[in-house]
Each structure stands twice: as C-alpha cells, then as structure tokens.
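User: Predict the complex.
Assistant: Input components as received:
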Amino acid sequence: MSLTKVFAEHPNRRYIEFGGKGGLGKTTFSAATAYWLAKRDHKVLVFSVDPQASLSDIFERDIFGKGAVEIMPNLYAQEINADQHIKEYQNEIRQKILDMYGFDEIPEEIENYIQAAAAEPAMEESAIFDAVVDIVVGEEYDYYIYDLVPLGHALYYLSMASVYDEWIDKITALREEMEEYSQVAALLERKDESEEDQILAELLDIKQRINTSSSILTDREKTAFFFVITPEEMIILDTLKAAKLFSKFDVPIAGYIVNRVIPAELAQQDIPDYLKNRIEMQDHYIEKIGETFGDEVLASVQEFDRDITGLEMIGKVADTLFGGVA
Amino acid sequence: MTEEEKANFLKRFGHSAKEFLYGMAGHDMTRFALKTRGSMEHLFILITMGDLLGIPILPPYYSLRLLPYVVPQISTWKRRMLRERDLTDALA
C-alpha cells in the first residue's frame, strides 16, 4: 500500500494528522503532504499549535500568529500564537461585559479575575484547543493538515476534549435543573414563560463546539492519523506504546511512515565502517518495522543530504513520500 | 345589580379567590422554588468562578465565557459564600 493509494481510496478524508516523537519529521511530512495536495489543485491549510512550531522555518517565512498565510497557490500555513489568542479572547469578554451592562469600565474585582484566569496553567492549552476548534469546524479548505506536537503532549490535547465534555455535562445538568425551578416559579406566579437562560445557551454552545471537534478528530471517514517513525529501536518501541494509547482515544491510525532511511545503494560503494555499521543496524530495524507494522507502512523516506527548508526541498520530499515505498 | 355589574363582581371575586388560594398554597412554593433556584445559582457560580474566592476551578477558559452573565450576582454571591453562619440562618 502506498500513501498515494491511501489518499486516492479515501477521497472523503479532509483532516490529516502527523504524529510521533519530537524531531522525526512531523513538520516536514506535514509540509510535503500539503505541497503535494496543493499541486493537485486542493486548497490546503497546514497548521501547528506548537509554541516552538517549525512551519515558519520550513517555509522560510515568519507566519507565527499571523493567521493563515498563503505560501503558494492553494497552500496556506498557520501557526497559532496562544498568547495573542488569549489576549484577544480577554478583550472580547471585557467588551461583552461593557456592552451588556453599559459600564464605562470593568469593575476592579472582575478585571482582576479576568487577568488571573489568563495566568492559570491550563489557560494556554485551552486557548490552543479552542483555536483548533475554530480552524477545524471551518469549511474553507479541502484539506486540513495538523502538524501535531510531540506524542505526550498530543495525548493531552486529545484527552482534553473528554475532560471538558464531562465537566460541561455536569454543569449543564445543574443549569438545566435550575431552569426547572425557574419554570415552576414562573408557573405558580402565572407568568407565561420564564426568561431564556443565556448561560445555558452558552454552555450548550461550548458543548456543541467540543463535540464537533472531537467527533471530527476521531472520525474514520474524515480523518487520518499517520505515525512518523525512524529505523531505531527506541522509536519503534515508543511508537507501539503510543499507538496503543492513541487507539484508546479512538484516534483513527491510518499508517506509518518511515523517515531518515540511509539510502541502501550507499552500501555498495566504498564507505567507512562507521556508515556500514549504521546501514546494517538500520536494515535490521527496517525488517523489524516490516514485521511489526506490516502493510501499514505506507512510505519510506531517505535521509536527504541537506536540511529540508524551502519549497524546492519540500517538493523533493513530497516526491519520495508519495512515490511509494522506496 | 345589572348583568354587567354582576359579571364584574364575579370576575373580581374570582380574581380575589385565585389570589387567596395562591397566597394559601402557591406563594410558599414559589418562594421555595425561587430560593432553591437562588442557592443553585450561587452553587453554579462557585463551580465555575471559584477562583474569585481563591478556589481553583478548571477550566478557566470556558469560565471566562460565562463571566459576563454572572457579573451582577458576583457581589451577593461573595457575600453569601464568605459570610459567617449563625442560628438565624435556619430561620431564613
């Protein structure tokens, strides 16, 4: 099975995620896939939530916190700036309070709370989560490519949806019960109807957003998750563990891509022992990868002789990636 | 007494009777429903805005979204949550 075939067989897939340990090539493959799809006339957005994102580096353009930036026709890239997102969000809340109550300024106590809430450790993650929801529920692009953060962190994001969901469920239930009491009082006082509960409406909206985004990211029809691995023992073992954890969150794992393979033809040439040994070791692990992941290995990409930055190199990676198993 | 006066009287009597019955039976129930609603409102603010009292509640991101709606209740809520309790509470 090749990556090209996987894309051809699943035309409904719109959300592509690359995951794996740090430094294995998630960003490279995200960019290369985006490039390949954009060249085939699909409108693509590749985005990252990592505060140390490398999309700016790979595309050689500063795009951090600038929204979706056009890199080439049909190819857009976005790096989410969580701090900026939080600031904008705080201002939105302030404006809403000013508008709702006609205040000239935010009462001190409330202002303090708004500022303190932004300093909470979970705030950044929540803001990123919310920004991603905004991106994935949009219908603007044919493909959304999610350059994930390294494994452990990615799991955290995935589990966040279910934690939020439970929390929101609980307080929504309480809110609904409150609504019942309001209705009883309204009925006894013979008022026609009680006022609409705006908080309940807001909670239901939050719930709906969380559900939409988590249903997208676990939908086998629409979403594909690819693991990036390299022919090394630690990586293979860690990926196996991660795959188990990910399947608990219903992540639709669609295949594995091997990166950083030293070209085998080198072995035929006159090379130093150091390199020979590396190639031998690698052959052993490539075999092991074949045994472990079987035909779920969709592509094997060689180690290039220079850094992957700029569209030309990204194009070369895309050719190897979608040219099938090397 | 004309027909109109009669109808009027009956209407007023009916209205008064309704009010009387409401006062006898319904009023207390309404008061109870509203009081329960009020307590739950404060419980709700506690579990969403607990940070305002120094009780950390997760996740603050979505709490902020609800903040505008509870602004008017914040001061009564704080007073109630932080107030010392005594015997008269049982009578309230």
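Residues 3-91 of chain B form one domain.
Let me know if you want any component modeled separately.
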